[in-house]
Amino acid sequence: MRHAGQRLATVLLTLLGLLFLTFVIGRVMPLDPVLSIVGPDADRSTYEQVRQQLGLDRPLAVQFGYYLRDLSHGDLGKALLTGHPVRDDLARVLPATVELATLAILIGTLVGVPLGVYAATRRGRLGDHVVRLISLFGHSTPIFWFGMMGLLVFYAWLGWAGGGGRIDLAYDGLVQSRTGLLLVDSAMAGEWEVFQSALRFIALPAGILGLHAVAYISRMTRSFMLAQLSQEYILTARVKGLSETAVVWRHAFRNILVQLLTIVALAYGGLLEGAVLIETVFGWPGFGQYLTSSLLLGDMNAVMGSVLVVGIVFVALNLLSDALYQVFDPRTRS
Predict the structure, then answer these.
(1) Which of 8, 101, 256, 266 is the most exposed place for a label (fewest CB within 10 A)?
(2) Do the Cβ atoms of 190 and 176 come closer than 8 Å?
(3) Any coiled-coil ranges, and where (predicted)?
């Protein structure tokens, strides 16, 4: 119980510090949310009235205290962008980004891990150089460039992929939203034409995000595997006559599994947070586009709510990684 209490206190302090820094930065930004509401031609009295209604005339510490008071009741405030509660906006846009990032991390893991293992077992040879080149290209090339080139080739020229948005307009609204994940909802409803349309639109942005994840995961997998393949127990296993497949996958790979869990978890969190550029390029109605629009408008309620979500996601993924450590590595259970 004491250990759980310490972990909970650490999590709360981390999120509190994140909120405070974001709050302070938001208040010193040159963007004025009052002007976004009243417009540049409003008179001084109207400006001051709206400024008082938003509470921006109070000291910074008082404003933050009121925000924490409302937050303790589950109130994230209203978004200037939509006029709706931020909590409702986040519940609406977050599933689209979760669906995109989940498909991307599946691609990144299922492709990146085998590539990293393959490169490590062929160190210094042609296969290793090819994988390292792919990793370098995927990690260093701007993701928005990939997005624009993907739209040009697979949408404009070949017509294989969908364009902007999440689904063809002809199928929009045909499936009742249960989970917010369009692929899951259409499959549950048996609407396979809607499913195919949604898959056609998500394949390209998810594939580009997945390529970025492949570059990172394959590079880290290769590094971890090289460290294990140089250990004495690997030499012992080979001397015993075990096949190379057994040595690589049953011995070396099992010992990097715990490290890979952290890498994959952090990569997933990074995809959720870093999908901003891809969502902007593809007009994807998700969390990243919502956060970008809120920042440009100076809508700090929406920005604070979005930052809180990102913080919770990363903290939750770290806690999940710690829990999985104890499942796969008995030495950590004490």
Answers:
(1) 8
(2) no
(3) none
